[in-house]
Design brief:
The complex is a heterodimer of chains A (514) and B (63).
Chain A: H1 6-10, H2 42-48, E1 63-66, E2 75-76, H3 101-114, E3 118-123, H4 135-147, E4 152-157, H5 166-171, E5 176-180, H6 186-189, E6 195-198, E7 201-204, H7 205-225, E8 229-236, H8 245-254, E9 259-264, H9 274-277, H10 285-295, E10 300-302, E11 313-315, H11 326-331, H12 341-369, E12 378-382, E13 399-406, E14 409-417, E15 422-423, E16 426-427, H13 429-438, E17 444-446, H14 452-460, E18 464-466, H15 474-491
Parallel strand pairs in A: 1-3, 3-4, 4-5, 5-8, 8-9, 9-10, 12-17, 17-18
Antiparallel strand pairs in A: 1-11, 2-6, 6-7, 12-13, 13-14, 15-16
Helix pairs in contact in A: 3-4, 12-15
Chain B: E1 3-5, H1 15-19, E2 25-28, E3 31-34, H2 50-54, E4 60-62
Antiparallel strand pairs in B: 1-4, 2-3
Classes of the chains: A alpha/beta (514), B alpha+beta (63).
Bound molecules: iron/sulfur cluster (3 copies).
One iron/sulfur cluster binds at residues 5, 10-16, 32, 54-57, 59-60 of chain B.
Chain lengths: 514, 63
């Protein structure tokens, strides 16, 4: 069994000298605009700080798992092909293993014993977690809240049945709910939803979208009144709801949603979805970012969503689901009393201490670059396997994390999935081409290590490979790079990169852990 | 007077089982089936056959 050791996550043992903690005054991205206590009510921070999906900072440290116990659905979306899987929460075309509530509970306990980073268990389908009477969802959560009470529970829903279950959700101690809301105007909705099943009838056309919209808004308001955090997922569909998502953003914000996650449409004819078959395209990385930037005001935008499979396991960006198939889990020796509780406790304490230090060292790094205020922000790509460090080899990266850097800080703005460049040591040129396309809007890529060949090709594409910050913290290194870069810009040693766009890798969303 | 499920299209999602007012639908040998002797096409209970209305794969059809 492959265990993520605390060391490998935290980078301990690979540690170079720690940047000296600076004076207080937390203005960094991680506790300024993107995460952390300063822009959040303390009670909200308490709820999200260890949730990898809800807190950008936590996603470097904590793992989640989804249990696929809810195959039924009560609506049809044009980006989903029910014959395979839900496009919403999992990569389409990959059939998940559907679990009974009992199998799901066993699986959670097995993973919890093995992966101390586990902090959250969610139910995200593959259909709707509240369809078909929410039977499996409720059964699974009832048992888990008894057997592993330290693990947080969350669920995703299309919202149609939500108003009927808010009380139950509250009873079960579920403190986060994600609702997928793609429109607040049924005129727009009719192009996304061909039908819904509600009140014992199938509704179609604009009427269907009207009902769905009303139920979604009611459900959201009820969650707010019950003190349950609501995150909104939206799928960005160019030409259909792209501009409209700003209205969605405003409406959900007005009803107390605390996080908005705008995701790109995944559409490929091979997935057999309506949008795939009609040639509806997904957005480019820059279109997605432009929309996210426009929506980002006083409400947080989520940028680290991985559009996970409905049975993903592990840190965001990795998937260890295959180590925990129902068959394997049935054979494991499982400690039914929440196995591994102490390990999880220790890990959490460790992360708390680490974070306090991190907030300070980020503030120090920001102070260092304050003098270059006014320069345009740059994008850089980072190869990391967690712990907020540059600790991944270029050739082993399955994704690159993208940071937008200027004198105000280094802000995480997204991730780009890539095919594995280095399979077993030898570089593969086509793979390299797709990586360059995926990070073409970045001026540099920060890695722990990189070979000579890919370095040359990257440079030719105007992306500077940088390994001098190996194993150091991402944000501090990004700022140090930014300072040096702007200096070189000033002397004419480098030229400004303009007009580059990047391709979102369709279907590459969930890399299975090799 | 009964409905049936086209097994080749069924995704085994279980949505129909939860909606049937007569418990006519059950899981058998890897797929869902309708017991014709229990199915009333929902007459007397609802305006439309519930299994057909909820089925995301559109595979509940008159027998
Ligand atoms: S809510 Fe999810 S499972 Fe249901 S149709 Fe939409 S994408 Fe598919
Ligand atoms: S038509 Fe109605 S009674 Fe017959 S199987 Fe479907 S839901 Fe059940
Ligand atoms: S609702 Fe349709 S797809 Fe789902 S189990 Fe019933 S017949 Fe199969």
């Amino acid at each position: 069994m492959n265990v993520i050791s605390l060391d490998s996550i935290l980078g301990v043992g690979e540690l170079k000298s720690q940047p000296a903690p600076a004076a207080s005054g937390c203005t960094t991205s991680s506790c300024g605009s993107s995460d952390g206590p300063s822009d959040m009510a303390p009670e909200v921070w308490e709820k999200v700080k260890n949730h990898p999906c809800y807190s950008e900072e936590a996603h470097h440290y904590y793992a989640r798992m989804h249990v696929a116990v809810a195959p039924a659905c009560n609506i049809q979306c044009n980006y989903c092909n029910r014959k395979y899987d839900c496009a919403n929460e999992s990569r389409p075309g990959v059939v998940s293993e559907k679990l009974t509530a009992e199998q799901a509970v066993r699986k959670v306990l097995a993973v919890a014993a093995e992966i101390p980073q586990l902090s959250v268990v969610g139910i995200a389908g593959p259909g709707d977690s509240l369809a078909a009477g929410a039977k499996n969802t409720i059964e699974t959560f009832e048992q888990l809240s008894r057997l592993a009470p330290d693990i947080k529970l969350c669920l995703s829903t299309n919202g149609l049945a939500l108003p009927d279950y808010v009380d139950r959700i509250k009873d079960l101690n579920i403190d986060h709910v994600t609702i997928t809301i793609n429109m607040v105007d049924p005129e727009v909705g009719q192009h996304i939803y061909p039908w819904i099943f509600h009140d014992h009838k199938r509704w179609t056309g604009i009427e269907a979208s009207k009902i769905l919209h009303e139920r979604q808004m009611l459900g959201l308001e009820m969650l707010r009144d019950a003190g349950i955090l609501a995150k909104i997922n939206s799928v960005m569909i160019p030409g259909i709801n792209d501009e409209h998502l700003m209205d969605v953003n405003r409406e959900v914000k007005a009803r107390g949603a605390f996080l908005h996650n705008i995701m790109p449409l995944i559409s490929d004819a091979a997935h057999g979805t309506h949008f795939g078959l009609t040639g509806q395209r997904g957005p480019t990385a820059q279109e997605l970012k432009a929309l996210q930037d426009k929506c980002e005001g006083d409400m947080k935008l989520m940028r680290h969503c991985r559009q996970c499979r409905a049975d993903a396991v592990g840190l965001l960006g990795e998937d260890r689901g295959e180590e925990f198939t129902a068959e394997k889990v049935m054979q494991m020796d499982i400690d039914i009393d929440g196995g591994g509780f102490t390990k999880r406790e220790t890990y959490r304490e460790h992360v708390e201490a680490e974070r306090a230090q991190r907030h300070q060292s980020k503030a120090a790094a920001i102070a260092e670059v304050a003098h270059i205020a006014g320069e345009k922000p740059i994008l850089i790509a980072v190869a990391t396997k967690g712990g907020e460090r540059i600790n991944e080899h270029f050739g082993h990266a399955k994704e690159f994390q993208i940071y937008e850097v200027d004198a105000r800080g280094a802000k995480f703005v997204g991730h780009r999935r890539v095919d594995l460049y280095c399979e077993g040591g030898s570089g593969d040129e086509d793979g390299l081409e797709t990586i360059i396309q995926a990070i073409n809007d970045c001026v540099a890529v920060l890695v722990a290590k990189i070979g000579g060949c890919p370095s040359k090709s990257l440079e030719a594409a105007g992306i500077e490979p940088v390994d001098r910050f190996a194993f150091e913290y991402i944000e501090e290194s990004a700022l140090a790079y930014y300072a040096a870069y702007t200096e070189r810009l000033g002397t004419g040693a480098v030229r400004e990169k303009i007009g580059a766009d990047a391709v979102i890798r369709q279907g590459a969303y969930t890399a299975r852990r090799a | 007077m009964a409905y049936k499920i086209k097994a080749s299209d069924c995704t085994v999602c279980g949505a129909c089982e939860a909606e049937c007012p007569n418990e006519a639908i059950s899981f058998k040998k890897g797929t869902y089936v309708i017991d014709a002797s229990k199915c009333t096409e929902c007459q007397g209970s609802f305006d439309a056959p519930q299994c057909a209305a909820v089925c995301p794969a559109d595979c509940c059809v008159p027998a």
